[in-house]
Every structure is written in C-alpha cells, then in structure tokens.
C-alpha cells in the first residue's frame, strides 16, 4: 500500500518537474527577483536633485540657522532671500526657480511667531522636511527665549538628561531596543514563506486534481487505489516539487545576488526580509550597541524557530492543500473554484496582517495568542511570535490543535474528494458539498 | 467455484436517491456477461461498487469465492465508459505507472506491455504523448491498460465506442481471445447487436432494480411469443387469408427475401407449428417458415416499457 503512495508521489513529482511552465518559472523567477532587487538598489543609490528653498526671514533670527545647515549633499538647499520683496518672491514660486518659500514674518513677540510662519510651495512638501524646519525654528526660538529670560543656556543643556532604558529578560540576558522589528522580520519571513508556499503549491494540487478529473483518468486510478492514497500522494508529490523549486530559487537567487553585488559594486542589497525602517531604527542606535545586536540575534531561540518552522510548514501546508484538493475534486474547472477559494485565502491574509500589526505591538496579547492557536492562522502567527519567546505549553498546544485539525480536515476532504472526483457536470454548492459528506 | 462474481442484495443510495435496490447478480466463470439497462438505471453504480470505487450501503460482493476486499483490485480490469489518460504523459510511461498500481512489478509490466503493444501493432507509440494520439488510438492504449495485468474479471463499459469498424473488430477478437484464456467478461453496452453477438449471459437493470437475469437462450425462451414468420406464394390470397385468420392471429411483417411473396407474422396460440404448416402448404408455396425469436433489443424494450 505504501509503495502505491510512493508510486503516486513519484508520478506527481515528475509530472510537475517536467512541466514546461514549471521549468520556465523555476529559472525565470529568480532572474526577475534579482532584476527587481538590483533595479531598486540602483535607484536608491542615485542622488535626488538638490531642491532650493527660499527663506524670507523678516526677523533676521533664523536665516543663518538654515544657511549653516546647508550641506553639499543635502536634498534641500536654503537661500536667504530676505532682501527681495515677499510679494515678488511669492509670484516667482510659480516659475519654479525654487521648490518653496519659507516666510517668517515680523511679529511683536516670539509667542505669536509660533503660529505665523508659512511655507509656500506648489507641491506639498514631505512630512519629514516640514518637521525638520520646525525643529530648527523651535530650537532657535527656545534659545532666544532662554536668553530673554536671562537663563544660562549651557547650564540648561547640561541639565537636560537623556534616558535610554535597556531591556533585559528575567533570564538575565540583556536586550536591545529596536530588536522587536528584527524579530518580527525573522518570524515574518518564515510565516510569509509558508503563506507563499501554500498559495502557490496548494493551487498546483488543485489544478492537478482538476486535470485528472477533466482527463477522466481518475476513474481508472480510483479502481486501483483509494482516493485517500491518491490525494495524499498528490499533495506530497507536489510539495516535493515545490521544495525543489524553492531550493533552486534560493541557490540561484543567492549566487546572482553575489554576482550582481560584485559587478555593480553595490553594497549587499538591504536584505528584502528585513524592512528597511527596522534597519534604520537599528542604525540610529549607538554604534556601540552593534555588538549587542549580534549577541542578541544569537540569543534568539534559533533552534526553536527552525524546528517550529518545519513543523508548522508541514502542518500548515498539508492542512491547506487538503482543502485545495477537495475543492479541485468538487469543481469541473478552475473558474468554478473561485467561490471556494476565498475562504481559504482570507485566513492566510488575515494571519499575515495580524502578524505585522498585532504581534509586533503585543506579542503575547490576547489577539496574538488566540490567532496563534487557531489552526488556519497559527502556522503564520505563531512563527512570528516565536522570536519573542513563547511558552512551551502554548507551542505544544498550538501544534496539537494544528495536527488534530489536519487529521480531521484530511478525513473530511477525502470524503468530498472521493465523491467529487466522480461527479461531472455539476456545479457544486456548499449545500451539495455537505450532502456529499453523508454519502 | 463456478461463479466468478456474486452480487448479493446490494443497496446503494445517494442521499435520498436509490441507485441500486437489493440487486443480486451471479456471473458464471468464463462467461461473457452483458449488463444491460437504460441510461441512469444503476449500471455504472454497480460497476463502481464491484471496482471498489464506491462502497455499497448494504449487501455483499463475492469475488471468486472471497468477500471483496482491496487486494482484489489486481484481479479486475476495468475500462470505464468515460475514458481518459494523462495527456502530457508518454504512452509507455503511463501504462507502466497504471500497471504498477495494479500490483505488477515494473519488469513484469514492461514484459506484458511489449507483448500487447506488439499484438495490437502499436509498438511505435511508446514515447508518444497521449495528446499526440487520436481518440481511437488512445482508446487502444486504454484497452491495453485494462487487460495488462491478466485480470480474472474484465469489466468493459461501452468498449467499442470511439473505434472504427476495423479496430472495433480487433478489440472484439481480443475480448473473445481473453475469454478463451479463461477470463470472465462483464460487458455493459447499449449496442444490442454486440450483446447478441458476444454475450452468453445477460442481466437487465431498470430503475435501480434487476428485472431479468440468466443465460441468453433461457431469457429468449422466456420472452418467445410463439409466433412464426411466414413467406408464402399463393394464387388465392383472399382464400389463404380467410383460412389463416379463422385460426390464428395474423400481422404484417417484413424480412429480406428474393421472392415476391406475402409476408406474415402468425401467432400460434395453442396450435403446433405443424398445424400451421399443413394449412399453409394446402394454400400455396411456402418460401419462408421460421420461429420469431425475440432479439435482445425486443427483450430490452419490452422489459423496460
């Protein structure tokens, strides 16, 4: 009996691997991926044009502050045009000789100034640019205020204190801020990988079932093997083909990255797995802590992450591909499958959203915990939680639920499968599927 | 064991619909057994149960003296009505795969395949893909797949559909050859002339129930109407007709003949054939005198309506 399953697995595997579109996709995708990565990398190394910003400072207090902030490679360059009449300045914005005009009017006191400053431009400026201007002005104003009040600026600066709380776990390991982003990125990368795999190869399982059905070969096969064997063989065979494809992608992708970075002299592309702002946050920390980061990454439960990845990968993929297989058995062609596919895609997408929005804020909150137990979302959500440290019992419970559901779903899917593959010309409804369970 | 297959009181329901209602059949070893019935009668349901594609709700199947179980799949060869093969797979590879599923070793499967490919003169197809073959050619491959593992019981559902007359004949001869070698053949079809030609036993299923079963001759005997087809050349047709209609029920009939005669179908009732013949010979020249044997077609229509 098991030799029959391996026979089916073999056939499914070779049928997939020899397929032309599979071969093309296997070798074209990494090319595309690297191509896009190189393109993005190239774009990000290009310097943006310097934009000139005119300053009309009637108070005479701020212009110098801005001019002194001019650097050679800065995106914005400030010009002091207080000498020119404000009206003609405003008019000339339309000529676009400069990006915008910062207008600081003369007012009786500094308090009033706070709300009187204007930035006039054709295109709305970026938020960070405006914040930057506000900072410069606010700093200068504060300084002025201190002086007016006869306060000692130096003493005040010294008196200011900056606090950086260092995070530590009860187990004694030290922790670093900004690491959360890295953790979610690692968990997210694994979760995302599972989702991609499920969608791509689950669909492939479905198509393969539909193909057998439309070919009408299924009746012959089912007269020799049990539908369950056929279904499992199909799922495993397809997943092996998928793993091979992923493996080839990884190898080609990595070697092409290396080649590309070598020839183009790019810095190793910001690894797409880690969101760039997470990297930035990390960079903004003092360089002295860099070592701590490395230390901290090593402290992550790497073994747990990898083992759980494999377990959740298998559980999640098998669970979902049984759904895909029974959908394939229920319909006559791919167009009919849409109505049944939506409920499958939804939990996957939901899981990714929950991962990126909820887990990062509160990795052990109710939402994150509950969804890391629900079997349809747990492979993704739990993987994102694991880098934050999940109690072993939760992990065990979640995996038990996942595999329990998996066996139930396989039983249920096999029933629909068994009836469905021999049904032709019927457009199934949910009600119909329920009836099939009782056959 | 003289019966290869016994179906005992098999019931199959799909939801509220009863597909098979207490159906029992006995298929003798070495027979060619015609399984007849109108569309939707339940034939395919029964065949699928015998092939263990679906399970009966109740009743049992005995194959060669043993209760049907998964190991029996290798004793059965099945050619379903809805045929198909993997389109993109090569013929040889595909046959090997399907044969191995029936429990043959790879080497044995290859040996058998070579034998059959040579026999049906399709050696050149080994490396072709199914999609490159015509429908009839693919059917031939499928026939090979069905018989390759030397099954004791062969189930053919409409085996001749899709074949041209030449190839249909080739397949017919192969079926007869298989019977000679000891296989039993269950034969489901709507083509009554091939039933007439091949089958020695028949069963008729109608609306989920078995109506008729038995040796073809016995069934025909049961359905005989005791009427004769008569051809007679007579000078006095009116006198002849008067005489006959006095004693017998007479109808018009038609048969092929080279004479210019009166063609009649005469129901004997309680009389013997000789009484009729005597009467006829007094009135004219008898050119044709034959008992009207019901064709399978007649039996089918009569039983179903």
Automatic annotation (TrEMBL), chain A:
It is found in: Cell membrane. One of its GO terms (molecular function) is ABC-type transporter activity. GO terms for cellular component: plasma membrane. Keywords: Cell membrane, Membrane, Transmembrane, Transmembrane helix. Pfam families: ABC2_membrane_3. Residues 20-414 form the ABC-2 type transporter transmembrane domain. It is a multi-pass membrane protein. Its main location: membrane. The chain crosses the membrane at residues 21-43, 184-205, 243-264, 297-320, 340-360, 367-386, 392-414. It comes from the Bacteria. This is ABC transporter permease. It comes from Flavobacterium franklandianum. The lineage of its organism: Bacteria, Pseudomonadati, Bacteroidota, Flavobacteriia, Flavobacteriales.
TrEMBL record, chain B:
InterPro entries: AAA+_ATPase, ABC_transporter-like_ATP-bd, ABC_transporter-like_CS, ABC_transporter_ATP-binding, DrrA1/2-like_C, P-loop_NTPase. Residues 5-232 form the ABC transporter domain. Keywords: ATP-binding, Nodulation, Nucleotide-binding, Transport. One of its GO terms (molecular function) is ATP binding. It holds the Pfam family ABC_tran. Belongs to the ABC transporter superfamily. PANTHER family: ABC TRANSPORTER ATP-BINDING PROTEIN, ABC TRANSPORTER ATP-BINDING PROTEIN NATA. This is ABC transporter ATP-binding protein.
């Amino acid at each position: 009996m098991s030799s029959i399953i391996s026979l089916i697995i073999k056939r499914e595997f070779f049928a997939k691997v020899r397929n032309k579109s599979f071969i093309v996709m296997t070798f074209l995708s990494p090319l595309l991926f690297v191509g896009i990565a190189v393109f993005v990398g190239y774009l990000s190394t290009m310097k943006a044009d310097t934009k000139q910003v005119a300053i009309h400072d009637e108070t005479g207090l701020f212009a110098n502050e801005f001019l002194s902030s001019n650097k050679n490679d800065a995106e914005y360059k400030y010009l002091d045009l207080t000498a020119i009449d404000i009206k003609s300045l405003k008019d000339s914005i339309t000529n676009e000789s400069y990006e915008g005009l910062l207008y600081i009017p003369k007012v009786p006191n500094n308090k009033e100034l706070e709300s009187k400053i204007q930035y006039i431009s054709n295109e709305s400026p970026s938020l960070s640019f405006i914040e930057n201007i506000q900072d410069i002005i606010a700093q200068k104003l504060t300084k002025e205020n201190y002086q007016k009040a006869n306060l000692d600026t130096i003493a005040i600066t010294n008196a200011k204190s900056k606090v950086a709380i260092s995070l530590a776990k009860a187990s004694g390991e030290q922790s670093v801020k900004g690491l959360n982003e890295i953790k979610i990125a690692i968990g997210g990368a694994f979760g995302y990988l599972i989702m991609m795999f499920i969608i791509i190869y689950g669909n492939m399982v479905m198509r393969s079932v539909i193909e057998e059905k439309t070919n009408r070969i299924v009746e012959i096969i089912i007269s020799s093997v049990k539908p369950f064997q056929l279904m499992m063989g199909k799922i495993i065979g397809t997943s092996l083909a998928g793993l091979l494809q992923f493996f080839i992608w990884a190898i080609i992708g990595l070697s092409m990255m290396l080649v590309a970075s070598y020839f183009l002299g790019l810095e190793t592309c910001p690894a797409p797995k880690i969101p760039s702002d997470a990297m930035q946050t990390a960079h903004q920390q003092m360089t002295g802590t860099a070592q701590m980061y490395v230390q901290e990454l090593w402290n992550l439960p790497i073994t747990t992450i990898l083992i759980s990845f494999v377990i959740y990968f298998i559980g999640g993929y098998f669970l979902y591909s049984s759904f895909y297989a029974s959908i394939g058995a229920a319909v006559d062609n791919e167009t009919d499958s849409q109505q049944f596919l939506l409920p499958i895609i939804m939990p996957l997408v939901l899981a990714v959203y929950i991962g990126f929005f909820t887990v990062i804020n509160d990795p052990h909150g109710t939402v994150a915990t509950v969804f890391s137990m629900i079997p349809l979302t747990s492979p993704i959500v739990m993987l994102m939680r694991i880098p934050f440290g999940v109690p072993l019992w939760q992990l065990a419970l979640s995996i038990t639920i996942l595999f329990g559901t998996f066996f139930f779903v396989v039983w249920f899917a096999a029933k629909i499968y068994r009836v469905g593959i021999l049904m032709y010309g019927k457009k199934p409804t949910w009600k119909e599927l329920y009836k099939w369970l009782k056959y | 064991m003289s019966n290869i297959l016994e179906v005992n009181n098999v019931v199959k329901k799909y939801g509220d619909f009863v597909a098979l209602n207490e159906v029992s059949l006995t298929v003798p070893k070495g027979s060619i057994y015609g399984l007849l019935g109108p569309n939707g009668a339940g034939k395919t349901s029964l065949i699928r149960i015998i092939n263990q594609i679906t399970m009966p709700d109740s009743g049992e199947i005995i194959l060669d003296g043993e209760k049907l179980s998964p190991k029996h799949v290798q004793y059965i060869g099945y050619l379903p009505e809805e045929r198909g093969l993997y389109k993109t797979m090569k013929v040889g590879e595909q046959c090997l795969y399907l044969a191995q599923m029936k429990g043959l070793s790879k080497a044995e499967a290859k040996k058998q395949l070579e034998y059959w490919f040579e026999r049906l003169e399709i050696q050149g197809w080994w490396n072709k893909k199914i999609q490159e073959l015509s429908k009839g050619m693919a059917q031939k491959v499928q026939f090979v797949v069905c018989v390759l593992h030397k099954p004791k019981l062969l189930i053919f559902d409409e085996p001749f559909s899709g074949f041209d007359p030449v190839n249909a004949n080739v397949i017919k001869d192969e079926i007869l050859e298989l019977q000679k070698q000891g296989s039993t053949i269950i034969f489901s079809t709507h083509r009554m002339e091939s039933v007439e030609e091949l089958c020695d036993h028949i069963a008729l299923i109608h609306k989920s129930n078995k109506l008729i079963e038995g040796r073809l001759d016995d069934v025909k005997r049961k359905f005989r109407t005791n009427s004769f087809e008569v051809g007679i050349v007579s000078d006095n047709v009116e006198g002849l007709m008067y005489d006959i209609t006095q004693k017998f029920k007479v109808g018009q009939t038609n048969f092929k003949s080279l004479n210019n005669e009166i063609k009649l179908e005469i129901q004997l009732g309680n009389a013997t054939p000789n009484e009729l013949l005597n009467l006829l010979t007094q009135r004219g020249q008898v050119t044709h005198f034959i008992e009207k044997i019901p064709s399978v077609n007649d039996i089918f229509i009569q039983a179903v309506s």
